[in-house]
Design brief:
Belongs to the protein kinase superfamily. The chain is of the alpha+beta class.
Length: about 300
């Protein structure tokens, strides 16, 4: 469906949007805050430049993103309200999350353990919903987790998402290297457990405030992912949380937890039972010591 663009507004068949500030940047264009001229409701609109999309041969990715996200309806997944196009752009109109990304949130302060659980529980619920439909996100990272005004997380960016129609997805190099599991790095067939690995990376990052695998070069980073164990010397962290991280960052996906199993983990169960505690009663993880130079 085509739109008519007038000055600083764009119009679909159902709404007229006024474009406001730029709030993000993607591989193929900008993300802008917009306001429905009639209702005054705010949205985030992804402006995908057709020229860039063609340069990167990303047409299939964009079409897949639209096809998958338009069918998703979950409280912890960003809603794709509508999409339309003109001669230069494809516009994806999505719900607006006013508090930005989870990465921006943890840059402000260190989270308490119960706050980490608050976010991870919601993210895991979104993943269970996806995986029950055989959809794998394949690009989980703090930058793709948004927060609305109620501190509710919303998973976004389904550019690398795919629907698995057989036992496993075909080998492909997808996602962001720091969050890739060994099977993606090694270009092996993969299942929804690639998202379990990335969930483990995110939990690690929320706890330690840095990523578990680093490298000066892409090759060095990939070797770290394949061979390094980042959990050999973690002090002052609850044992059940270490157990969960170990089960998520297992190199062999056969032995890695799926998201349904994550919900049954000891750490999840303890946090669920303690959810009535006030924030100041939660475990403070600021005194954790971690030696990232330790190898297997």
């Amino acid at each position: 469906m085509f739109c008519c663009k007038i000055k600083n507004t764009i119009q679909s068949s159902t709404r007229n949007y006024q474009l406001l500030d730029e709030i993000g940047m993607g591989s193929y264009g900008k993300v802008k805050l917009a306001k429905d001229v009639k209702s005054k409701k705010k949205y985030a609109i992804k402006l995908i430049e057709k020229q860039k999309m063609e340069e990167f041969h990303a047409e299939n990715n964009i079409l897949s993103e639209i096809r998958i996200q338009s069918k998703l309806h979950h409280p912890h997944i960003v809603e794709l309200v509508e999409y339309f196009e003109d001669e230069k752009f494809i516009y994806l109109v999505q719900e607006y999350c006013s508090k930005g990304t989870l990465r921006q949130e943890i840059c402000k302060r260190r989270l308490l353990e119960n706050e980490i659980y608050h976010y991870i529980y919601q993210l895991n619920e979104a993943l269970i919903y996806l995986h029950r439909q055989r959809i794998v996100h394949r690009d989980l990272k703090l930058d793709n987790i948004l927060l609305d005004e109620n501190d509710t997380i919303k998973l976004t960016d389904f550019n690398w998402a795919t629907k698995i129609t057989s036992y496993a997805a075909e080998p492909t190099n997808c996602g962001t290297t720091h969050y890739m599991p060994p099977e993606i790095v090694l270009l092996q067939p993969h299942t929804e457990k690639v998202d379990s690995w990335s969930l483990g990376i995110i939990i690690f990052e929320l706890v330690f405030q840095h990523r578990p695998f680093e490298g000066l070069t892409q090759e060095e980073l990939q070797k770290q992912i394949i061979y390094h164990n980042p959990l050999t010397d973690c002090k002052s962290i609850p044992t059940d949380l270490i157990m969960l991280l170990n089960c998520l960052l297992t190199k062999n996906p056969i032995y890695r937890l799926n998201c349904e199993q994550v919900k049954l983990s000891q750490w999840f169960q303890r946090q669920h039972h303690n959810s009535f505690l006030q924030a100041d009663e939660s475990v403070n993880l600021t005194n954790i010591t971690y030696n990232k130079n330790d190898n297997i």
